[in-house]
Amino acid sequence: MIVNNDKALKVAEFLLQVKAVKLQPNAPFTWASGWNSPIYCDNRITLSYPNIRTFIRQSYSESIIECFGKPDVIAGVATGGIPQGALIAQELGLPFIYVRSSAKEHGMGNQVEGHFEKGQKVVVIEDLISTGGSSIKAIEALKSAGLDVKGLVATFTYGFKIADEKFREANCPYVTLTNYDFLIEEALQKEYITESDLQSLREWKDQPETWKK
Length: 213
Hints:
The protein is α/β, with parallel strands linked by helices.
């Protein structure tokens, strides 16, 4: 779900502007999964630009309050959700914890790091949603630790149906600041792509596993 269309376009503009997102429908990237992809996304780049970082932090904070109310704690998903989550927790005056991809194999063996109490309400921060796998693992870890997960907020999603299905199965609503549809709309408007690129970009979203195989 997108909370504010104008902000979604603005975030998309920022991602394109600083090359956090690159669109190359005619020279695809190859993901670790083996999928060909016309898009490469690294939202961590936005952290290097103070004005963009501030806009994104404030947009996250407003979306959290509007969609989920003020939680007791903010949880970042390693690794991209950690810096954003810490900034958002500071903005909202809340405690911050983070979730590892797996439990530590030494020490206390924690997967959830930081101080929290069982039963506390938590909103999860992610930077990017693709198939939703890493996000759902983090949500499950937080629930297993006794936290009440109210929802997840991310900067960007590709909008894959498989991600929607996983979040629905996990009974966890999610919100993003922008998404693939807003991004390609903004990219066309700002002439990062042409009209002739649009069909290929839309085909990829519908069938990413087989696109340009």
